[in-house]
Amino acid sequence: MTDPTATAHDPRDNHPTMAQLRAVAQPPEHIARYNAEHWAGALYMRHLSLPVTRALLPTGITPNGVTWLMIVAGVGGALALPLPGLVGPLLCVLGMQLQLLLDCSDGEVARWRQRFSPAGIYLDRVGHYATEAAIPAALGLRADGWTLTDPSRVGGWTVLGMLVAILVLLNKAFTDLVHVARAKTGRPPLEDVAATTRSRVSGLAAIRRAFGYLPVFRAFVAIEASLLALLAGIVDVAHGDLLGTRVLVAVMVPLAVITAGGHLLGVLTSSRLR
């Protein structure tokens, strides 16, 4: 039988049991949405975020306050990448893990306290946009050997990193602009299901399915990008130069073009704008 106390919910209660908090802050209908969860969230982060959320509640911090911490963790981790050796990549990985943890917790705090606002969604998007664009930009700086003590070392690799950052921002904008276009034409919000993203052009749909087995777009998601940066950093240290980081930046350029271009085509040929 279900414990009747598990779903009792007083938003003013800052000391819920774990069962009470889980029932309200991690409802199955939210977690199971098509685009709701990063694989790391489902695999382990949701298990870690609940005790963190429970510890945050008595502090009185607002959901938006947690989101600001998420932004600082993500952007700070990305900007650490140019630090020499493995220090920068390791700090980046830790920053992205902390960002994901706080990204889980801000929504959990909001659901427990029943405090939802457009500002919270806006800040959340700002955090992800800023972080995921900062990673390739910082990788470009690292590939040029840029340091705080030698800030003049900015060259072609930095330009390539910035190019990837711009493509990352465009790719993310292509998704949000769907919602803008629908809102401006009075259409209802899209359901968060796989069917809405399916291309109506059979060839493109087949290509999209093929990329499902080789999800190159994940190279530009914060968690995966930080792990790739760490792998590149390990190659740097083993090789005694910046070979790993430079190869990563060079590979990211065509992948970003393919990802952004494919996403734009996918939007235009799907039912999202109908």
TrEMBL record:
Xref: InterPro entries: CDP-OH_PTrfase_TM_dom
Membrane spanning residue stretches: 55-81, 154-174, 216-235, 247-268
Keyword flag RNA-binding: no
Source domain of life: Bacteria
Keywords (A to Z) from UniProt: Membrane, Transferase, Transmembrane, Transmembrane helix
GO molecular function: transferase activity
UniProt keyword Isomerase, yes or no: no
Name recorded for this polypeptide: CDP-alcohol phosphatidyltransferase family protein
Organism this protein belongs to: Knoellia koreensis
